[in-house]
Structure formats: C-alpha cells, structure tokens
Design brief:
Elements: H1 2-22, H2 30-44, H3 57-76, H4 79-94, H5 99-121
Helix pairs in contact: 1-2, 1-3, 1-4, 2-3
C-alpha cells in the first residue's frame, strides 16, 4: 500500500509540474492557462484552504482538492500538449538533485543575513 501511495504522490507531483508548464504554453487557451496556474499555485503553496494542523481535515483538502483540480484542468488541455508537458515534467523529476548546491545556497543566505545584522548592529 505504501508503494502505491508513493507512486500516486509522484504522479501528482509530475502533473502539478506539467500544469505549470502548460500554463506557460502559448498553445493553451488563456482561461485554461489561468486555471492551470491557479491549481499549480494552490498545490505548491504552503497556505491551504484548511490548515494542515487540523487533524484529518487539514490534509483532506490536499488529498481531494488538488487531484480534482488537476483532473479538471487536464481535461481542458489538449491531450497532445498535456502529454508533451508530462514528459518534460517527468524528465525534470528524474534529474539529479545537488545537495552540495543546496547547502551552498543556504550558507550564502546565512552569511548574507549575518552581514546585514552586523551592519545594522554597528
């Protein structure tokens, strides 16, 4: 069961990225673009309709609203275009992630914050 949930989460993640790409495609009608970007923004946003700290209900909107939004928008996007963006999103998910670069960026932000604090303190 855990493997099935993991696979389902990967499909949702891929489709959210594909919707983001479709929302920027000039071949997609503007109203569908707006809806695609809205669904992708809601899926990626830390702000939810129902806050996640509320037991059960907090995650219910993520489990129900996001897949329903994805399904609605996918039906509005022409199948060929959606298949193309799904392939691009899947390829992007398979690219290796550099943890060294992430650590370097975090260190850069910390150093910048320390510099600002030091300059203000002086």
């Amino acid at each position: 069961m855990a493997g099935g949930l993991r696979q389902w989460a990967r499909v949702i993640k891929r489709d959210v990225h594909a919707l983001h790409l479709a929302g920027r495609d000039p071949r997609v009608p503007w109203c569908t673009k707006a809806l695609a970007l809205l669904v992708a923004a809601y899926a990626l946003s830390p702000i939810d309709l129902i806050p996640d700290f509320i037991p059960v209900l907090g995650y219910l909107d993520d489990v129900i609203l996001v897949p329903l939004g994805i399904l609605a928008v996918v039906r509005l996007i022409p199948p060929g275009i959606m298949a193309e963006h799904r392939e691009l999103a899947a390829a992007a998910l398979e690219r290796p992630v550099s943890h060294v670069a992430a650590v370097a960026i975090v260190c850069l932000w910390i150093a910048s914050a320390a510099l600002v604090v030091w300059l203000v303190w002086r």
